[in-house]
Amino acid sequence: MIFIILLIIMAVLLLAAAVYSIVHRDLLFAVMGTGIVSVVLSLFFYLLQAPDVALTEAAIGIALTTIIFIITIRNTTRDEDEIIDKENEKL
Amino acid sequence: MQEEFNEIFIKYHEIITIGVYGTAIGLILIGLYAVLMKKNLVKIVIGLSIMDAGIHLLFVGIGYIQNGTAPIFSPGYENAGERMVDPVPQALVLTAIIIGFAITAVALSLIIRLYKHHHTAKIDQIKSLKW
Question: What is the CATH number of the domain that holds B110?
Answer without folding.
Answer: 1.10.287.3510
